[in-house]
Amino acid sequence: MPANVKNDQKHNIRTITTTAELAEFCKLAKAQPYVTLDTEFLRERTYYSKLCLIQAALPPASVTRTPGGVAVLIDPLAEGLSLEPLYDLFRHKPTVKVFHAARQDLEIFFHDAGVMPDPLFDTQIAAMVCGFGEQVGYETLVRKIARQPLDKSSRFTDWSHRPLSDAQASYALADVTHLRAIYEFLSAQLEKTGRAPWLAEEVAVLLNPETYITRPEDAWERVRTRSGSPRFLAVVRELARFRETYAQERDIPRARVFKDDALIELASTRPLTEGDLAKSRLLLRDARRGEIANGILAAVKVGVETQDLPKPAPEEPGRPGNAALAELLRVLLKAKADAAGVAPRLIASASDLDAIASGARDLPALAGWRAEVFGNDALRLAAGEIALSAQNGSVRVVPVPIAS
């Protein structure tokens, strides 16, 4: 932990409830090299996350000259508070916006205001690039880098309830005060190793609006089915389209409309009347009548009658003919990831390896920094240009002599 970073979560804590106060804080933040941020939200009863709290902290010994810097809670539920000063900070290029596992936070800001924090630093991704393992949690980084304990007892509390308890406030502030030490350590490591461009590639995905757009016409692709029948899939597509549209328009969880197992049942039985819906074992009572029932029946009808049939997904790549190559690629990935000090999953997933073994080449694992670390040798291994050898307890890449 850097000497100038203190465990100061009990100091300088205040809750911002007015636009003027928020503008004052954001003005201070714009004068800093970075600001750490986090959110608390609820999503159990809505389709889109309900933003309940924003936490922010400035670097230690910042412009206020206080020993621990400034750490604040921002209450988006406060009457009359506009978040526009915060969004203006998000657009301010000189100040890095630091989050841990930012995807859900960014989804909220994108859907609420169409804005992204740029430049962005995600400490979870940076930690994987720096060799801290796969999907490393914030608590782990606090313990290993900031060398502080972390009280997670308030994690699942109701963040929409006011006033917040002292325990909630302390928990919330810890998510950004310790994040400063983590950011400073990881950013220094990336600079030292020259891997900042690796992080930039990953952050570009997070900042792409397409990452957060769910189109109803594509919703069926997330439904796991056992049947590859084009007609069956057509009904699944229309039912998933209706469910996604209905849930988005009313801001309710898609499971409140009907769950995936009910969708599969409906696609199999293809009900024609409300009487048929009443026979469903899995459909919620509210879905057997009214708007949802009408929507289900209309979707089934479209799916049964359409001539625009979806194509079944290709069989799982890498099986059976390329199973041996896929296993060799797994060994290569482990060896390359260990040598680079990077989490293997950040480089390639199991399905990526199967796809490479089956001949796929348009994959992130074969481009950018991943190609340098793993992808280029993966292609050489698939082409028979190199082999793997065990030497002194480690796996090595050896060239295969070219037959004359």
Automatic annotation (TrEMBL):
Looking up SUPFAM superfamilies in the UniProt record yields: HRDC-like (SSF47819), Ribonuclease H-like (SSF53098)
Enumerate the Pfam families for this protein: DNA_pol_A_exo1, HRDC
Q: Which cofactor does it need?
A: a divalent metal cation
Tell me the ranges covered by the HRDC domain, including all copies.
229-310
Single GO term (MF): nucleic acid binding
Where is the protein situated, by its record's location annotation?
A: Cytoplasm
UniProt-listed InterPro entries: 3'-5'_exonuclease_dom (IPR002562), HRDC-like_sf (IPR010997), HRDC_dom (IPR002121), HRDC_dom_sf (IPR044876), RNase_D (IPR006292), RNase_D-like (IPR051086), RNaseH-like_sf (IPR012337), RNaseH_sf (IPR036397)
Tell me a GO biological process for this protein: tRNA 3'-end processing
Task: Enumerate the UniProt keywords alphabetically.
Answer: Cytoplasm, Exonuclease, Hydrolase, Nuclease, tRNA processing
Reactions catalysed according to its record: Exonucleolytic cleavage that removes extra residues from the 3'-terminus of tRNA to produce 5'-mononucleotides
Quick one: a GO cellular component term? cytoplasm
Q: What is its EC number?
A: 3.1.13.5
Similarity annotation: Belongs to the RNase D family.
Describe the function of this protein.
Exonuclease involved in the 3' processing of various precursor tRNAs. Initiates hydrolysis at the 3'-terminus of an RNA molecule and releases 5'-mononucleotides.
Q: Which PANTHER family match?
A: RIBONUCLEASE D
Could you identify this protein by its name?
Answer: Ribonuclease D
Q: What is the native source organism of this protein?
A: Paracoccus kondratievae
